[in-house]
Amino acid sequence: MTWRSPLALVREALRGQRAREKDLRNLASNLPYEGLEKGKQPNRYFPGNAIKTTKYTLLLFIPMNLFEQFHRLANIYFVGLAILNFVPVVNAFQPEVALIPICVILCLTALKDAWEDFRRYQSDRKLNNTPCLIYSRKEKQFVERRWKDVRVGDFVRVVCNEIVPADLLLLHTSDPSGVCHIETSNLDGETNLKLRRTMSGLCISHPVFEPESFNSVVVCEKPNNNLNHFKCYAEKPDKEKVGAGIESLLLRGCTVRNTDHAVGFVVYAGHETKSMLNNNGPRYKRSKLERKLNINVFFCVILLFTMCLIGALGHFLWLQALPVVPPFLVPDSNGHLDSPSLSGFYMFFTMIILLQVLIPISLYVSIELVKIGQIFFITNDIDLYDEDTDSRVQCKALNITEDLGQIEYIFSDKTGTLTENKMVFRRCSIMGTEYPHKENAIRLAVLEEPESEEDIIFDHVPQPPNTRWSLDTEDTNPEDTQHHHGSWRKSKVAGTAQSNVAFSSPLETEVIPDRKLLQQISRAESSSSSSQKIDPYLDFFLALAICNTVVVSMATAQRQRTSESLHSRQTNNPLNTLSNLVKKPGSLHRIFTFWQRKPKRNRTISEDSVTEGDDFNPPVKTEEPGDINGLQTCSLYAPSQCNMPATTSDNLSYEAESPDEAALVYAAKAYGFTLLARTHDSVTVRLPSGEDLVFEVLDTLTFDPIRKRMSILVRHPITKKFVLYTKGADYAIMELLGTPYAEHLSGSQKNIAADTQHHLDCYAKEGLRTLCFTKKIVSDKMYESWLVNRRRALAAIDNREELVMDTAVQLETNLSLLGATGIEDRLQESVPDTIVALREAGIQVWVLTGDKPETAVNIGYACRLLEDEDLVINMSCKNKLTCTSILDCTLEEVRRYSEDPRNVDTTQDISLVIDGRTLTMALSSDLQDRFVDLAKRCRSVLCCRVTPLQKSRVVKVVREKLKVMTLAVGDGANDVNMIQAADIGIGISGQEGMQAVMASDFAISRFRHLKKLLLVHGHWCYTRLANMIIYFFYKNVAYVNLLFWYQFFCGFSGTAMIDYWLMIFFNLFFTSVPPIMFGIMDNDVSAEMLLGVPELYRMGQGAGAYKFSTFWVSMLDAFYQSLVCFFIPYLAYQDSDIDVFTFGTPLNTISLFTILLHLSIEIKAWTVIHWVIILGSVVLYFIVTLAYSGLCITCNPPSNPYWILQSQMADPMFYLICILTTVVALLPRYIFHVLRNSIAPSPLAQARHLDRLDPSTKSELIKEWRSFRGGGQVKRSRLSTPPSPTLETPVDIHLQSPISSDVMGDEFILNVITENYQRPLHT
To answer: What does UniProt list as catalytic (predicted)?
Structure first.
C-alpha cells in the first residue's frame, strides 16, 4: 500500500462527499477494473454493503456513553454537585460518598446500553456474513462471497427464496419474459407477491446472461427512503437512454419468489439502500405527563434554591450574632477566618449539596422501569391477542404508554380499520342494466350467521369443491346434500384461520353468478363471431380480468417458507351444493347446479390458496367422464372443454396487492373469464367457451391518488387494435367519458352513463364500494405519438412522476363506459360496540375516508358512528363563499341552541358529514377557527373523499387549535401521515400491508382491541404513573426537609444528623422498589368495571389525576409530615444528653415508616407482591442498619454510628416515638381519604365499592349508576333548520326523509349542500 499525504486524503474525502451529494450518480460496471486498487475503481466514492448499527466501539464506549447520558440535564446537575462536594469550603459529605448515587445510576444505564449495543453488533455480524453470489471476471462465473463484500457496480445473482443483499437494478431473470416475483414482507409486511421486470433493451443474451457484455452507464437518483419510487436510466454506448423505475428495482431485504434466479446491478449498497434509510429505530415522543413532570421539577429547583437561600442567610445571621469566635470555627493556615457574608455564600452551595435529593435523581430511571413493566402487561394481555393472525399488540414507542389514558379525539380510517378489508363482489351494472346477484347475497347471509357447535366440527373426509355454475335446474342428490352439511362454515373457519395468501378466504373467492347475466353472456358468446369478440358484456368481464396487477402463479410454483407448520396443511372444502346454503324455510332451493371438481392432494385453505412446504406433489386427476352425483354439465361451456385436464384454472393462485382487485378477478372467473397468466408484456384470459386470448400488454398506467384510476393498454389478439381498459372511482371516470359505447343502440340505451350513475348512487347508499370500467380504442397514429412522450417521461430524472402522470392523463380521454361494480367491505367484529364505548368514555370519534359520502354515511350508521336520532349535517360546497355562509349560519344555530335556557338538560346529538373539497375550504386560515368550533360541538364527524394529506392536516388542526390529546388509527400506507401527526398513532396489521404498523406507536390486529387498550390499559398506565410520580416528589421532599429543619438547630452549618451512608441507602435501596411496584401493579379499578362503565375513562382526560393542585397538596403534606417527624422526636429528647446520630436514627426510622405507610394508604389493590415488597423494605432497613451500626466503627470519624440502632432498640422510648410520630404524621391524609370517600366519593371510588359486590348485584347497580350519571340520554331536542344564506349561488338547506328506512330509522338529516346535489333516492 502506497503512502499518501494527509492533503491528498482530504482532497479525496472531499471528492467523495461531493460525489455522494450529487442529485444524479453515474455508475459503471466494476468488472473491467477487477483486481485494481481502490483508487482506480469507478464507484470508489460510494459506501460498501457492510452495515453497522451499533452506537459504540469497545475502546470509546465509556466516553461516548457518558456523552450520551450527559444529554440529560439531571445527570449533569448531579455530577456537578458531586464535583462541587470536592471543594473543601463547600463540601457537605465525604466527597467519595457523594459520588456513589450518581455513579450507580450512570453504571446501570451504561450496562443497559452496552447490552443493547452488543445485541446490535451480533445482528450486524450475522447479516454482513450472509453468503451471496457475485460475478468475477477472472473466474468467468458467479462466485460465493459475503454480503459485506458487495459493492456498487457489482453483478449479483439471487436464487429463489433468497434475500436480496443490496438494491439491485434487475437486468436478467430465468423467466423468458423477464419477470421476477418478490415478497416485501421484511420491508413493509406485505406477504402478497409483487412483480418486477428487467430493463428492456439492455441485455439480449438469453437464456444465459453475460455480465461482461454489459457496457452501459447507469444514471440514478441520489439515495432516498421512498420505497415506492425510483428514478433511473441506462445510457448505452450509442447514447440511447433506457428508463427504469421502481418496477425494475429489487430492494435489499426482499425475498425472490417463484423465480429460479435473477441477476441485478448494484445501484445502492449498505446504509444507502432504501431499507436501511427507512430503518430509523424507535421514535421518541414526549408524553403529556412527562411535559408536566418537567414543570414540577422546575418548581422543585425553585424550592431548593429558596431553602438554600434561607440556609445561607441563616448561617450569616447566626455568625453575626455570635459574641465571640467559638472554638469549633477553625481558622486556615494563616490564622484567617472567613467573614460571615463569605461564609454565608459558601453555605449556599453546601446546602445545595446537602438538599440535592429534593431533585429526584432516580425518578427518571424509575419511570423507565415502570413503563417497561406496563408494556409487558399490555403485550401479554390475552384479550388483545388475535388468534386468526397469531398476533398480539406491539408497543413500538416505549415512553408514551400513559398517553393512552388521556385521549380525547380519535381519528380513524374506514377501509381495513373499521371494516375487514375483505372485499366481496355483490352487484354490477353493465351497459345501464343492473344485476343484483340475489343468489350470491343468500350465500353471504348464511356465511354471516354465527356458527353453532355442530357447524365448526371439521370433517376429515375431503369433499369435492365446486366452482362452475349451470343454468340447468336439475335435482341434487339428497344424500350428497346431507353429507356436505355445514361445509360453508367449515370453509369459513378454516380459511380464516389458516390462509397465508392475501384476500383468498372463501368469503372473497366464491361468487354465485347472477342468472340473468349468465344468460346475457351466453347470448353474447353465441352471437359474437369467432373473429370479433367485441360485445360490451365480454369487454366488461375482460376489463375485470386484466385491468389489474394481480400476480398469477401455478400450484407447481408455490412459495416455500421455513416457518410452515404441519397444522396449516389441513384440507379445506370450498363451495358445496347451493342447496346446503339455502336449505332453510322460505329459502330458494335448487336454483343452480354446477360442476364438481374432485379433491386434489396437498390442498390447503381454499381452492386458490398457496400450499407452502418443502416439496409438492402434483394434483391428481380423479374425475371420470360423465355426470357426477347426478349433476349436468354447464351449458355455458363447450363440450370439448368439459373434460380437459385439471391443470389450468383449478391450479391457479391469485395474489393481489389490494382486495378490490382480487374480488374483481374472482368475479370474472365465476363467469368463466379466467385470468390464466400475466407477464410484463402479455396477459392470458380464458373465455367461457374455453378459448384462450393472449393480450399483448403495451403499457400499464398504474393507480395514483391524484388520478384515482388505473389503465392497461393492450393489443387485442383478434382485432389487432390498441385497446385501453380503465377502472377507477366514479367521479374520476364520469368526467372522462366520450360517446356512449355503441351509437347504434336504441335511444333508451344511450343514457348508459345516467343509468349507471343511478345504480352507483344506490350502491353507495347500501355502503358498497364502487368502481367504473371503461374501454377506448386507440388509433395507431395516436399510439405512436403518445409512445414518444411516454418513453421520454420514463427516461426523465427530474419531475419524472409528473411527466409520467401527464402521459397517462393524455391517453385517458373520451372513454366509453362499460359498467360499474359494487363491492362490499364488511365491518369488523364488535366495531359498533367499540365506538359506542369510546363515545361514552368522552372520546370524540372522527372517521376520515376516501369513499363516497353515501357509502361513508351508510357505514357510519352501521358502526354506530351516526345514530338514528342524530341530526346529520351534510356539507358539500363548490365555492368558498358558500362554505363561509354555511359555516356561519350553522354555527350560529348551534350556539343559539346551547345558549337557550330550555336546553339545559338536553344533549346535542349533532353529526357532521363533509366532503374533501369542502374540507379544503373549511381548513383555510380564515375559516379554520369556525370549522373547529362547529366540529367540537358535534358528537361525531365523518370526512369523505379526503386525501392522505388532508387526513394529517385535520389531525394537526384539531390538535393545535383545541389543545387536546389525539389518536389516529389506520391500516394502510395512506394513513401514515395521519398516524404520525397524532399524539399517538396506532396501526392495524390488516390486509393492506404493514406501512401503517411500521409508522405507528402501537400496533393492534383488530379495531375492537382499541376498547381495552384505551379504557383499561390506558387508564391503568396513566393513573399508576401519575400517582407514582406525585408519590416520588412527596417522598423526597418529606425526607429532605428533615435535614432542613435540623439546620435551624445547628447554626445552618450544613451538618446532617443522619449518617451519610444511611442517607444514600435510604433512597437507593430502602424506598426505591415500593414506588416502582406501585407504578406497575396498582389497580384502582378492575378491568371488568372499566369496560362496563366507560365513563370512568373521563377521569384521565384533560388535567386528569396529575394536576398542579394535587402536586402542591402532596408538597404541603410532605412539609407537614416532615415537621411532625422532626419535632416530636426533638421534643421527646429535649434537654437529654443524646448524641447527634442517636437523635437522627429515630428520625430515619420514623421517616421510613411514614413514607411506606403513606404508600400503603394510596395502594388500591393489595396483592402478595405488595406485602412482600413493603415488608421486605422494612426488614432490609433494619438488617442493613444493624449490620452497619455493628461493623462501621470508624466509617465516619469523628462521629461514628457504632452500635447506635442496637442501643435505640433496647429503649422503649424509641418504639413509642416511632408509633406516635407515624400516626400523627399520617392522620390528616387518612382522615381526608375517609371523608372524601364517604361524603363525596369520586366515580372511581364508587367503582371500587361496586367491585367488591357479587356479580349479579354489581351488574344491576352498574346499570342504575350509568343511567343516573348520564350513561343514558336524558332528553333530546332538535335543532331548527338554519336560515338559508342569501348568495349568488343558491344553497338548498332542507330537512330530508331517511335515505334507507331499514338502516337509518325515522331520523331527519340536515343537508347543507349546493344546488347541483342529487337528492338521495328512497330504497
So the answer is: 413
Residue 685: which of 718, 726, 656, 640 has the closest Cα? 718
Burial of 1172 (0-12, 13-18, 19+ CB in 10 A): exposed
Query: In sequence order, what are the residues at sequence separation of 6 or more whose Cβ sits closer than 8 angstroms to the Cβ of residue 290?
Result: 399
The answer to whether the annotation marks 184 as part of a ligand binding site is no
pLDDT attached to residue 902: 64
Rounded distance between C-alpha atoms, residue 808 and residue 724, angstroms:
11
In angstroms, rounded to a whole number, what is the distance separating the alpha carbons of residues 90 and 115? 38
Q: Considering the chain, what is the average pLDDT of its residues?
A: 78
Distance CA(443)–CA(424), nearest Å, equals 11
3-state secondary structure (DSSP) of residue 725: strand
Classify the phi-psi angles of 845: left when phi > 0, otherwise alpha if psi is within -120 to 50, otherwise beta: beta
d(CA 728, CA 747): 27
Compute the residue count for the chain: 1323
SS3 category, 1050: coil
* C-alpha 245, offset from chain centre: 28
CB count within 10 Å of CB 753 equals 16
**φ and ψ at 386, to 5 degrees?**
-110, 115
Q: Where are the alpha helices (DSSP H) in 401-535?
A: 438-448, 478-483, 487-498, 506-509, 515-527
Neighbours of 458 (CB within 10 A): 12
CA distance 756 to 750: 11
pLDDT of residue 753: 86
pLDDT tens-place string over residues 949-977:
888 899 999 999 999 999 999 887 778 88
Give tens-digit pLDDT for 1217-1228.
Answer: 999 999 999 999
User: How confident is residue 1196, by pLDDT bands cut at 50, 70 and 90?
Assistant: low
pLDDT at 246: 87
CB 187 within 8 A of CB 254: yes
CB-CB neighbours of 1091 under 10 Å = 15
If 0-12 CB within 10 Å is exposed, 13-18 middle and 19+ buried, where does residue 711 land?
A: buried
pLDDT, tens digit (0-9, with 9 covering 90-100), for 998-1052:
778 898 988 999 999 999 999 999 999 999 999 999 999 999 999 999 999 988 9
Residues 778 and 722: beta-carbon distance below 8 Å:
yes
- pLDDT of residue 498 exceeding 60, the answer is no
Q: Could you please report the per-residue DSSP string of 349-396?
A: HHHHHHTGGGS-TTHHHHHHHHHHHHHHHHHT-GGG-BTTTTB--EE-
Task: Give the catalytic positions in this structure.
Answer: 413
Q: Is 691 annotated as a binding residue?
A: no
Query: Which of helix, strand or coil describes residue 655?
Result: strand
Q: Is the pLDDT reported for residue 1 higher than 80?
A: no
Average of pLDDT values for 259-286?
A: 82
Please report where in the chains the cell 359494487 appears, as a residue: 822
Q: Residue 274, annotated ligand binder?
A: no
Percent pLDDT > 70 in the chain is 79
Mean of the pLDDT values across residues 139-149?
93
Strands (E), 1082-1144: none
Are residues 358 and 304 in contact, defined by beta-carbon separation less than 8 angstroms? yes
Instruction: Return d(Cα 828, Cα 416) in angstroms, integer.
Output: 8
Better-scored residue on pLDDT, 191 or 1031: 1031
Residue 1283 has pLDDT above 70, yes or no: no
For residue 727, say whether it is annotated as part of any ligand binding site: yes
Cα–Cα dist 1259/1268, whole Å:
14
Sign (positive or negative) of CA dihedral 313, 314, 317, 323: negative
Q: Any binding-site annotation on 769? A: yes
459 is in an annotated binding site: no
975 is in an annotated binding site: yes
Q: What is residue 718's DSSP assignment?
A: T
- Residue 672 main-chain phi, psi, to 5 deg: 95, 0
Q: Is 414 annotated as a binding residue?
A: yes
pLDDT (0 to 100) of residue 503 = 57
Q: Kindly indicate the confidence band of residue 993, based on its pLDDT and cuts at 50, 70 and 90.
A: low
